[in-house]
Amino acid sequence: MASVLEVRNLSKRFGGITAVDDVSFDVHEGEILGLIGPNGSGKSTLFNCILGQLAPSAGEVRVDGHGVTGLRPSELNRRGVSRTFQLLQVFPKLTVRENLILAGQEHQGRMLARLFGKRDAGLTAQADRMIAFFRLSHLAEETAGSLSYGQQKLLDAAMAFMAGPRLVLLDEPAGGVNLTMLASLKERLHAINAEENATFVVIEHNMEFVMSLCSRILVLAEGRIIAEGAPEAVRRDPRVIEAYLGH
Amino acid sequence: MGEFIQLVVTGLTTGAIYALAAIGFTLLWQTSQTINFAQGEFVMLPAFFALAAMNVLGLPFSLAALVAIALSVLVLGVVFKTVVVDPLIRQGVLPLVISTIAVALLLKDGVKEVYSAEAQPFPSFVPDTVVTVLGTPVSLSQLGVLAVALAVIAALQGFLGGTRTGRQMQATAQNPTVARILGVPVERMVMYTFVINATLAAVASLLISPIYLAKFSNGEHLGLAAFVAAIVGGFNQVRGAIAGGLLVGVVDNLAAAYVSAAYRQAVPLALLVLIILFRPQGLLGRREERAV
Amino acid sequence: MKARLPLLALALVAVALVVAPLGLQRYGTYILTLWLVTSIAAMGVNLIVGYAGQETLAQAAFLGIGAYTTALLTGAGVPFGLAFLASGALAFCVGILIGFPALRVRKHYLAFVTLAFTVLVWLVIRNEQWLTGGVMGMNVRRPGLGEINLRNHQNFYWFVLAITAALSFALWWIVRSPWGRAFTALRENALRAESLGVDVRLYTLLAFAIGCAYGGFAGALFAPLVGFIDPAPFALAPSLLFLLMVVVGGAGSFAGPFVGAAVAVLLPEWLRFAQGHYLIIYALLVIVMMAFCPSGIVGLVRRLVALRPKPSTADAPAAPAKEAA
Question: pLDDT exceeding 90 applies to what percent of chain C?
Fold first, then answer.
């Protein structure tokens, strides 16, 4: 199975503190990889280094075999890596459809075509498909700010998938979402994984959610990977239990 | 060589005054997100408080200077914070920035219309006699100004580093959220910052006005010098503003003598551009992580 | 039906603007033309401030770049049309040059760099007498346009009106294109926009440079309008006034710059009795407006209109660029 993402010996130091310490792992095509670990274990820092939000102190990141270390987030995104943030990040004054068109428009054509071309960059149909997929069709014309929290969370995820990415990094997708919405989110993520063969990495605190969503789990503690494997194996791993209880 | 030393001393003198303005500017930005585009006018105004106290109330200069500082603390500190900054910060950063620009216009044209459009002579603390230091003639009044400015800066540093309140202020400047969790009375610290800024501006005003004369339009140059000093030094610390102020003062004076009097003002700006191009975090600033 | 109303209003405004000089004296027409020119520069500021969420304190400097470019080129015999385009192009390029380093750093640095730039341009205009005439200024001839005599103040007004209409259309096109969507996104949440592939640095730079080009275009019209240019209108204070007028009018709304420019041009006329005090009144007005209605006069009107027929649906008007520090 081909690796979509390869992380090699990645480290990130802030002054004297090593937040991410020599981390290496692969993400295979079509899998849903869970990234768990106690608070402060370096999960978000690792995400930010992979995504170009932070410059890693050492190490390398490759997407589909091409080195992408040090690329800016927008460049990385145009190469097929998209993400969601821990805190909700939609554009509240744009409509649901406009949010999705924005998420797709930079992935096609040239700058000048985006100035002189169609207002919707030819993306309305695709945006509506994505809206329908996440079951937000009745809200397409509403401004994102008027949606409920759970609906905004779905929109946030939909935006990450809009451009047909190779890899999606989801930072706590279940955070703050109620149970009904959670089931719907999980079901949709499973569906998009199956239908589009999309590859995910998911950071999550909700153990039940992550164990039932992911096919493989990485456990991070104090900036290092301490365990890796199938959800059931990781759940029983004494090192993992210690890492969580020890804190 | 003698001329060079004279120019450096003159530069350090004006530079120390710029530093006073730059420190206040930096403190305000850090503790309250107030980017005060009226900082130059804040340095222009107190001299006119003093002039009014002398010419209208007939007070002696020393008393008038105290009145000027007190009025500055009241108007540029307390009133500015409660009437302008507090209501506007709720509307976001841009409306507040716009309002400080409006305050700058207000103070400038206010002084022009109410007091005078002409440059006013302003008395000096120290008599303007020339003494010879190491074979170089140096103006005693300049040394006096330099000494006062450095003493005020040293006192401020002592206060910020050596007292409980000072350390609480620094904590507020670095991270208001954490400071609040640690039990620092953040609101009071922010008010202190405004009061300190007003005091520094008043001192700077009393020191610079004998050199430049008191004029309503002085704020433009002084504000620019303070911004450049703060950015060149690096925003993270007070000592950046001090270094930046001194550097801008010296560069400014050397440029006036050796480059071109007509482009004197342009040289600090060139310094600003160089810093932004090659060392955007400032000379003493820490590098910040990239945030888009 | 509902969509026709704004079009009808637009047509009425257009007709009113075309016939306006027929009922005006020479000075009135001059003021009206000055309003149009000011509006063009203000539109540029609005793109930078209202749409892209940056701060510029240099629009008067770009007005100056345009004015002197046009004055020098037409003086050397270059046709006005070319000089006009060159003015905008030069302002655009200079905008790229100063915007690029400033936008690499962090928020608000553009404000300081543009502030410094304004002082620098003013110094050059004042000191390089061989080129600009220094404080003695230089005369500018009104261009001819084929058979039409633009020295006639009404003809010149219509000429400026046509250019204003064209530039308004261009800006309207930009802000409703995908570029406009990217501008809105980077203003509201640059971090998220960047993560969705929006090259925040490039778009911000483009918004800034296009805004500067509008300053250059305005300058190219300003020079022949006043017929004589010296450094004063291109100093720091007028640059600050450009920023204030856009915010007073309503940053981020299309009509905002026109309303703000009208206030800025007409207020000194109305407040003649107050003489020098008008700037003080204006400054106070700005502070009060920012505290109670940061969306400007346009936002205020919208709020009033929304209140009247159906108080329940009064949606809060869009506040300009309310960033989370």
Answer: 67
User: The dihedral of CA B194, B147, B44, B251: what is its sign?
Assistant: negative
Angle formed at CA A79 by CA A76 and CA A83, multiple of 5 degrees: 55
Cβ within 8 Å, pair C179-A51: no
Query: Using an 8 Å Cβ cutoff, are C186 and C193 in contact?
Result: yes
With CB atoms and an 8 Å threshold, state whether C178 touches A92. no
Q: Do C192 and A103 touch (CB under 8 A)?
A: no
pLDDT at C274: 66
Structural domain spans, chain C: 24-235
What pLDDT sits at residue C321?
A: 41
Q: Are A20 and A46 in contact (CB under 8 A)?
A: yes
| DSSP-based three-state secondary structure for A86 | coil
Reported ipTM: the value is 0.89
CB contact under 8 A, C323 and B94: yes
Long-range interactions of A118-122: CB distance < 8 A, separation 24+? A119/C176, A119/C177, A119/C178, A121/C178
| Average pLDDT taken over every residue of chain C | 88
Closest by Cα among C78, C63, C62 to C114? C62
- In which residue ranges of chain A is pLDDT below 50? none
Tell me how far apart the 2 most distant CA atoms of chain A are, in Å. 60
Pairing mode, strands A167-171 and A81-83: parallel
What is the model's pTM?
0.91
Q: Does domain B2-278 have CATH number 2.60.40?
A: no
Three-state SS at A7: strand
Contacts of C192 in chain A (CB under 8 A): 85, 89-91
List strand residue ranges (DSSP E) for chain A, in order.
3-14, 17-28, 32-36, 58-63, 66-67, 81-83, 167-171, 199-203, 216-221, 224-229
What are the sequence ranges of the domains in chain B? 2-278
Interface contact A73, partner B, CB < 8 A: yes
Residue C2 pLDDT greater than 60, yes or no: no
Which residues of chain C does B103 touch, with a Cβ-Cβ cutoff of 8 Å? 283, 287
Q: DSSP letters along C264-303, please?
A: HHHHHHHGGGGGGGHHHHHHHHHHHHHHH-TTHHHHHHHH
Chain C closest CA to B140's CA: distance in Å?
33
Q: How far is CA A7 from CA A19, A220, C293, in A?
A: 16, 14, 50
A14: helix, strand or coil: strand
The Cα-based distances of A187 to A95, A133, A183, A191, A209 in angstroms read 24, 11, 6, 6, 11
**Number of helical (H) and strand (E) elements in chain B, helices listed first:** 12, 2
- CA angle at B224 for the pair C215 and C239, rounded to the nearest 5°: 20
> Residue C57 above 80 pLDDT?
yes
Long-range pairs of B185-191 with CB within 8 A, sequence gap ≥ 24: B189/B31, B189/B165, B190/B31, B190/B32, B190/B81, B191/B77, B191/B78, B191/B81
Residues of B in contact with C283 (CB under 8 A): 102-103, 105-106, 109
Q: What is the pLDDT of residue A110?
A: 86
A197 burial via Cβ count (<10 Å: 0-12, 13-18, 19+): exposed
Q: Distance between CA atoms of C205 and A157, rounded to whole angstroms?
A: 29
